Description:
Elements: H1 3-7, H2 54-90, H3 102-107, H4 113-142, H5 144-180, E1 187-188, H6 192-207, H7 210-213, E2 217-218, H8 222-231, E3 235-247, E4 254-264, E5 271-281, E6 287-290, H9 295-300, H10 307-317, H11 320-339, H12 341-400, E7 404-413, E8 417-420, E9 429-433, E10 438-445, E11 449-454, E12 457-462, E13 466-467
Parallel strand pairs: 2-6
Antiparallel strand pairs: 1-3, 3-4, 4-5, 5-6, 7-10, 7-13, 8-9, 10-11, 11-12
Amino acid sequence: MSDFDKKKPNIKNDTDTDEIYEIPDIVTGGSEHKEAKEPKIKKEKRVKPMKQTNSENNKEKHNKENKKHTFEMKNKKHSKKAAQDDIMEDLEFISEESVKDKSRMAEGKPISHEFVSKKKTLRRSVDEMEAKKEKSVAFMRRNIAFVGIACLVVVVAICAIVIGVKSMKAKKAAAEKNQTLSTQEYEKDGHAEINELFANYYKAYAAGDTEEMVGYANPITDMEKSYISMYSQYIEKFDNIICYTKTGADENSYIVSVAYDLKYKNVETAAPGLDFFYVRTNDKGQVYIDNTYSSFNLSYQENPLDDTIRQLINDYEAGEDVTALQANVQTRYEEAIAQDADLKNMIETTIVNAINEWKTAQDQQAQQKTQEAANQVAADQQQQDQQQAADQQQQQDQQQTPTETEQKAWVYATETMNIRQEPNEQSAVLASALQGSELRQLAVTSDGWSKVKTGDIVGYVKTEYVTTQHP
């Protein structure tokens, strides 16, 4: 330090200048986009300044330059930060949360040339995608008709392929099903809804309630209803019902063999039995018995049978498992009859006689119906003949009715004659005309009568008894 400095009075630094500048906080303050505020002047108590030397002037000048340099640096840094913020806002992958802390952004690293290059590349890619999209739209508009036809052809082709595949699968499944039906294994009580169906069916059968049975089996003819009503009189109940099921002609139909123990009234031992049924599924998803293929209709054939289903049933009955099941039931049936004389008498005598009487009654009813039908045909024919004869007679009567033609003249009676009410000899006589009497002729008929008037009387006389010549 120089001697001059040592001798310098001890004066505070804040008196070295009359003005003190406050630099705005551009980076962290809340006035980032506003112009810098005017410098504030801090007024202090004036002290009469001492005369400054050249060294003091140089020092004051140096301090001012330092402050100006600091202000310019902060301005430059703020401008650079604002440019960075503009770039960051244009990029979609920069979230708003990452720029909330402005102090951290101010301290961030400068954006490199590589970063700017990536941004430009991204923009070029977006522009290229938009250009391709516009070209595609323009192409579609120019060729909309061809594009529509092409789409229609593709759709039709796809539909045809789908239908063809489904048809082939259906045919293949049907063929495989027909081929493997005899080897298809039974499902013993495998369908709860089928088990319930036959439990209800046999309960109604034992009660002879044919009206309720129609809800489980359809169609049931009047003849079969008559048979059920007769046979159910001897039945007490059906026990131990077991359903052996195989798939039918489609996935919603079933071929079912039902084994049971039939308990007759007043007979201790039950008789094993086996019935065949064809079960279908209705539109509501409920199973029912297609009674067209019942044992009764297969015997009497009151309803026509489908040849495909009939052949399917024949193949089913030819299967080894069905044959074995029938043989097992038959063996148990024979054993039951051998053990119980009442059962044997019921089946071989009572039931047989009842069935024969039923058949006789059915034959008589059939003959009676045939005779009634014949009588009805004869009555209809007789009525038709009578009607035809009446029509012919009416036609003849119409043909025989005489026609009347107007013919006015003065005529004279050639002899005494009767004037009648109608133009026939059986008609009533109104008056008589003496020979030479003058009459006024009004008309003549085709059968030889003349309509005449004399005074107030109008009637008919024979044309042969009048003349136009005065006597």
